[in-house]
Amino acid sequence: MVEINWVTVRKGLVISLILWIILREFAGDIGGLVGFLAATIYVGYKADDSYMDGAAHGALVGIVGGIVGGSIILILYLIGLGDTAKQLWPVTGVIETVVVIVLYAIVGGIGGTIGSAIEKLINR
Rg of the Cα trace of the chain? Predict the structure, then answer.
């Protein structure tokens, strides 16, 4: 059974946000994705010993980050800042949002698994 370390997930969310903001300025959306992937690799590295733990922690960063980001975008739309919201996240529909969150979870799981593999290689 996977024991979730929420402190690691929260750190991953913060790192993901910071890297997304910085790298998106230099490399566009691909830079944001690279920053997110780097954050989930870190989370997988810090998670427990198994690959499943790393994948679960990385996927949680993707899911929680997508939900928080989607909520912020929704609030921006509701207060009349739709143009700003579209620049931050060009997803406008509910189905698109769910698909993007699922994709974030998949990419996060892959990043977490890579981080766990790196941790196993280093700590042999």
Answer: 15
| pLDDT tens for each residue of the chain, 124 residues long | 678 888 999 999 999 989 888 888 888 778 888 988 999 999 999 987 788 889 999 999 999 988 888 888 788 778 877 777 777 666 667 788 888 889 999 999 999 999 999 998 888 7
Q: Determine, yes or no, domain membership for 124.
A: no
Give the DSSP H/E element, type plus range, for residue 56: helix 51-78
For the chain, how many structural domains are there in total? 1
Among 55, 62, 48, 54, residue whose Cα is nearest residue 20: 62
Q: Nearest Cα to 33, choosing from 122, 108, 109, 121?
A: 108
14-36 per-residue burial string, b: 16 or more CB within 10 A, e: under 16? ebbbebbeebbeeeeeebbbebb
Let me know if residue 114 belongs to a domain. Answer: yes
Query: Per the domain annotation, does 36 fall within a domain?
Result: yes
The model's pTM is 0.85
